[in-house]
Structures are given as C-alpha cells and as structure tokens.
Amino acid sequence: MSQQTASAAAIKTVDTSAEGSTAGEYLTFRLGDEEYGIDILKVQEIRGYDAITQISNAPDFIKGVVNLRGTIVPIVDMRIKFRLGNATYDQFTVVIILNVGIRIVGIVVDGVSDVLSLTHDQLRPTPGLGSVIDTEFITGLGTVADRMLILVDIEKLMNSASMGLLEEC
C-alpha cells in the first residue's frame, strides 16, 4: 500500500465533492421521521438520556449540562434546535457526545441508527431552497438504497454564534 493510500485510509475520508460533502463514515441518527448523518470522527461516545442539570436563562434548545468524568458538558436538544416539534424522551432517546474543536458537547437525538460508509456516488449537493430553509449547516444529502440522509456539519453548527456555546475573545 502506498503512503498516500495509507494516509487516506487512516483518516477515512477522501476529497470533498460539491457543496462540501465528504465521502467517509457517518453516524446516522433520527429526529422525528428524518434521518441525519454526522462525521463519525466527531463522535466521542453515545450515552442513554439521563439526568441533566438545567441552567437558568439558557436558550430552550440547551437542555442543561452533565458532568462527564469531571468535564462539564452542555447538552443541546437537536429536535428543539431544528424546530421539529415537541421533544419526547423515551428508552430510545440518546445523547451523542461530540468533540467539536476544543469543546465537548452533547446532542440529544431520538435514536441512533448505525454507522454508514458513503462514497462520492452516494452524495448529493444540498438542494437550493432559497431563503425558505436555512441550509447553512447542511453539507449535502446521502443516499443509501431507499434511505435519504441529511448530512450535517456538526462542528460548524456547534461553533456557530446562534448556539451561544463559544466564549467571546
């Protein structure tokens, strides 16, 4: 195996295609009736939905914080953030712990599906929806058999000013 091939295999991604979608491995999760995908390399762990300490005056999509082995981790409910209706918590609800930049953040989702490897042939650019829908954090769509995945740039989303998770410098 050449050094270039070995390097590409080690990071499990290849060149970007149109609209910033990258072929590679994605953790898929459900929010309502839709399925989303995030770069597996951003995922630290998956935990069951457990007790969360609420923080007063936090935006409604920030459920609170948890103490994860000595690190205080903010927890974001993605159903509320994406305005997908009322969030219900059941035995399938999970928290995905992410490493985004220098920060650890948890996201609450309705359930985790699986890890999928997507090739360039399975990636589609984000459809042009004008100003009707904010697609700033959607990098594209993935197609697997009859499934359509909405691919999210989770690092860009979590580091955005609208999340309020960044400290001002």
What percentage of residues falls in helices of 4 or more residues? Answer: 10-25%
**Superfamily at the CATH H level?**
CheA-289, Domain 4
Structure annotation, total helices: 3
Which consecutive residue ranges, at least 5 long each, have pLDDT under 50?
1-19
Task: Write a structural description.
- The protein is mostly beta strands and 169 residues long.
- The protein has a single domain (20-161), classed as OB fold (Dihydrolipoamide Acetyltransferase, E2P) (Beta Barrel), CATH 2.40.50.180.
- It contains three helices and twelve strands.
- The strands form two sheets. Strands 1, 2, 3, 9, 10, 11 and 12 form a seven-stranded mixed β-sheet that branches. Strands 4-7-8-6-5 form a five-stranded mixed β-sheet.
- A hairpin with a 2-residue loop joins strand 5 and strand 6 (71-77).
- The longest helix has 9 residues, at 3-11.
- The model is unreliable at 1-19 (pLDDT under 50).
